[in-house]
Please model this.
Amino acid sequence: MLTLSIINNVFKPLREIYLDEIMVAINPSDIAIIIIVALILFVGSSKIPELFRSMGRALGEFKKGRMEAEMEINQMQTQPVSQSPQVNVQSSQSKSVDELEKQIKDLQAQLDQLKKQKTSQ
Model:
């Protein structure tokens, strides 16, 4: 019992120094290599390009969403405070409904003309 406690007391500082040296010795490039090797072992080499492709897409979507949110915040900050958004929405909806109905009628007329041209050929 006494010898175990002596051994532990003697080797404890050595273990702490050794662990500190290991932590210092591992740099980010070593960690990246370890992660790549682990991915190859567990995921397989055929799935890695697909994995990175999906990570790239996710990153792109994140950046796109962040930019849209920033633009929306900037737009909200530049709008005058006196304007109420509800009034703008109602007036723009009534205008846009009339415009949309007109566009629908125009498109239907064009569709009818195209159908006539197709049947005549």
